[in-house]
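dude i think i finally got it to work??
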Amino acid sequence: MSMKISSFALVFLGGGLGASLRYSTALIFQMLQWSPWASTLLVNGLGTFFYFLSLKWSQGQSEWAGPFIRLGLLGSLTTFSTFSFEVANAVKNGQPTQAAAILFLNILTGVLIAIGMFR
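look at this
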């Protein structure tokens, strides 16, 4: 039972850190007047990279890497819901090419990083 409680605490702490990093990234992109979807692409790409990097580093040896890094920090940093909203919003606004680019770039980036990290 104590491992479950400590895992919960690790997810909680990592989630707070990841969400803060995600929000900071969005604010920086907004301040620079860059496209909001580019911020999502960046955090999704970085999140995927660090997810697979943490798998390589931990090799099942770290009890805190899964809950803190993968579930908490990276789970709250990466933003599938925001990504989905941005695709749907582009379609709604009559920008199908931008919607396709957002969709394609996010998925391609994540998959290519995952493949590269498995080598």
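The CA atoms of residues 48 and 110 lie 6 Å apart.
im so relieved honestly
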